[in-house]
């Protein structure tokens, strides 16, 4: 006889995932959350739903935003934006210049892990001070939970924080070491360019510190970065080289050390992470590591993504600025239709990047056009990929007439001596494109100069098809000559702008559901 059909909920992975996505398994911890986010998206995109400017503040110092928290006064003041009206979470006394914070990262508790301290289960802020202290602060109170002194005898200028693996492995990078002019004139050679300190987070633990040395990596190194287990080294001539960072840590680790452990440093006994000894440089690269990959690109612009793996570069000549090549990481083959060139005539260049939704798609943004591209197999050539257009978003320039020749009322022909730029302020121009992962929405900010004022609106598009779902006008004027940041976080829109004389402003908009007319 024939075997019985598999029971509902059998072992077909695709079927299980599809049913889970539709919420069939009520005991799945993510089901309720996914349903709630789906409802929030529907409510937010309703015509009757508005976004109201509920709060505005100004500052003489830069303003930062992280996950519902607004930081001002060099992180001394924290304001929650989640409440009906933003309110102060904590306000610390003004710090001395020696305690100035250089960089910060928000640290969130990992799911499903046992942590040593109750405070580890709450969000915290890791900050780097000008005096080389690494502090972990409570995100809700500003209380110092942990402190580590970084700089020993080897390095005095740690300045940058970044993630190798988000929320797991953190990199603390020094400023580039440069000898004083007098030392250079005396013929003293500086071979160490950068120091990198590597930490595991929650619990905070020291992995090691290494130096980027000219003798190993070459004289023309201009910068380094670490991302997803890859050491990225950039050179002055546009060359980018990739190395296996995890293999470097394993191969060249002289001795592991733990924070708080005593150790001998040049004949003196010190404590790891304590003043004045700081951290030992316990990873000594003595030979050039195996090269994973290298490419030459204008201004070291280099990105990896897509499936199968591809990379994006600009040919390393100034005449190719604005031209992007999409190539296979496997064999460097240029994808079919892999040369992307919008041929923009604009002051601000177009930009391109792999879509952050992990779909493998590519977003190419020009002054008046956003292209979402996808990789797909060439028909009858399974080993070759081509770039195809998934959808486009076009700026609203219906009323824009840009004729080079006009005829006056008297019949006189007038020819323009110049061509209007693609990003002319009087035409609607895209300034920001972002992705809201929890609501699966693509957001765009477009700006038009009207007289002396710039008017901006934030639009929400379906991430799958690019359909416009919602448009939110921003009430404040937008000055295109200064920098702007716009954050879209669930039911919150936040606009941070820089103004003349290094003044900063923050405008908070919150979602308001009201079927009645509201002129506010």
Describe this entry's structure for a reader:
The chain has about 525 residues and is mostly beta strands. The chain has a domain of about 190 residues. Helix content is about 10%, strand content about 45%. The protein has a four-stranded antiparallel β-sheet, with no helix packed on it. The longest helix is centred in the N-terminal third of the chain and has 16 residues. The relative contact order is 0.10.
Low-confidence stretches: none
Strand content: over 45%
Work out the number of β strands.
36
- Outline type: globular
Helix content: under 10%
Task: Report the radius of gyration as a whole number of Å.
Answer: 27 Å
Strand arrangement across the biggest beta sheet: 1-36-35-34
Helix/strand class: mainly beta
- How many helices? The count is 5
**Major sheet details:** 4 strands, antiparallel
Identify the quaternary structure here: single chain
Distance between the termini: 72 Å
What integer is the average pLDDT? 88
Task: Write a short abstract of this structure.
The chain is 8% helix and 46% strand. It is mainly beta and 520 residues long. The chain crosses the membrane at residues 192-212, 224-243.
Please supply descriptive tags for the structure shown above.
520 residues; four-stranded antiparallel sheet; 5 helices; 46% strand; globular; DCA17 factor; transmembrane; DCAF17; transmembrane helix
Walk me through the topology.
Layout (H helix, E strand, L loop, with lengths): L12 H9 L7 H16 L4 E11 L4 E3 L2 E4 L4 E4 L6 E5 L9 E7 L16 E6 L3 E6 L5 E6 L8 E8 L3 E6 L6 H5 L6 E9 L4 E9 H4 L3 E7 L2 E6 L3 E6 H8 L9 E4 L2 E4 L19 E6 L5 E4 L4 E4 L9 E6 L5 E8 L9 E4 L7 E4 L3 E10 L2 E14 L10 E3 L5 E3 L13 E8 L4 E10 L2 E10 L5 E7 L9 E6 L2 E8 L3 E11 L7
Antiparallel strand pairs: 1-36, 2-3, 3-4, 4-5, 6-7, 7-8, 8-9, 10-11, 11-12, 12-13, 14-15, 15-16, 16-19, 17-18, 20-21, 21-22, 22-23, 24-25, 25-26, 26-27, 28-29, 30-31, 31-32, 32-33, 34-35, 35-36
């Amino acid at each position: 006889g024939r075997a019985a059909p598999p029971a509902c909920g059998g072992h077909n992975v695709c079927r299980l995932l599809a049913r889970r996505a539709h919420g069939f398994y009520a005991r799945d911890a993510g089901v309720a959350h996914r349903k709630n986010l789906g409802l929030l998206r529907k409510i937010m995109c309703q015509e009757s739903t508005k976004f109201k400017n509920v709060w505005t503040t100004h500052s003489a110092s830069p303003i930062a935003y992280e996950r519902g928290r607004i930081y001002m006064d060099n992180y001394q003041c924290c304001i929650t934006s989640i409440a009906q009206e933003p309110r102060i979470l904590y306000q610390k006394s003004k710090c001395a210049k020696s305690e100035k914070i250089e960089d910060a990262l928000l640290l969130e508790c990992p799911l499903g892990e046992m942590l040593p301290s109750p405070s580890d289960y709450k969000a915290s802020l890791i900050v780097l001070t000008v005096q080389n202290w690494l502090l972990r602060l409570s995100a809700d109170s500003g209380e110092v939970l942990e402190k580590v002194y970084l700089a020993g005898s080897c390095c005095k200028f740690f300045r940058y924080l970044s993630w190798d693996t988000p929320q797991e492995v953190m990199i603390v990078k020094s400023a580039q070491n440069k000898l004083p002019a007098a030392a250079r004139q005396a013929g003293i050679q500086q071979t160490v360019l950068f120091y990198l300190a590597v930490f595991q987070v929650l619990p905070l633990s020291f992995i090691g510190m290494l130096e980027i040395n000219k003798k190993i990596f070459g004289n023309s190194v201009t910068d380094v970065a670490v991302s997803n287990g890859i050491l990225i080294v950039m050179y002055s001539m546009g060359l980018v080289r990739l190395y296996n960072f995890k293999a470097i840590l394993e191969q060249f680790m002289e001795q592991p050390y733990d924070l708080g452990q005593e150790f001998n440093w040049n004949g003196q006994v010190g404590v790891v992470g304590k003043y004045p000894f700081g951290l030992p440089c316990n990873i000594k690269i003595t030979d050039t590591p195996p090269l994973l990959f290298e490419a030459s690109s204008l201004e070291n612009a280099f990105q990896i993504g897509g499936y199968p793996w591809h990379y994006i570069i600009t040919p390393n000549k100034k005449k190719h600025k604005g031209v992007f090549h999409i190539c296979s990481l496997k064999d460097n083959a240029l994808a079919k239709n892999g040369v992307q060139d919008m041929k923009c005539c604009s002051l601000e260049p177009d930009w391109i990047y792999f879509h952050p939704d992990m779909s493998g798609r590519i977003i190419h943004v020009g002054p008046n056009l956003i292209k979402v591209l996808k990789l797909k197999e060439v028909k009858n050539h399974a080993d070759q990929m081509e770039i195809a257009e998934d959808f486009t978003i076009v700026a609203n320039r219906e009323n824009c007439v840009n004729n080079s020749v006009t005829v006056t009322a008297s019949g006189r022909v007038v020819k323009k001596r110049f061509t209007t730029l693609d990003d002319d302020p009087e035409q609607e121009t895209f300034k920001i494109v972002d992705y809201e992962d929890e609501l699966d929405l693509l957001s765009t900010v477009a700006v038009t100069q009207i007289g002396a004022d710039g008017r901006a609106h934030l639009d929400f598009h379906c991430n799958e098809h690019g359909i416009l779902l919602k448009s939110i006008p921003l009430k404040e004027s937008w000055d295109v000559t200064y920098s702007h940041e716009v954050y879209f976080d669930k039911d919150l829109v936040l606009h941070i702008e820089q103004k003349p004389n290094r003044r900063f402003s923050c405008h908070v908009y919150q979602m308001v559901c009201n079927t009645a007319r509201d002129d506010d």
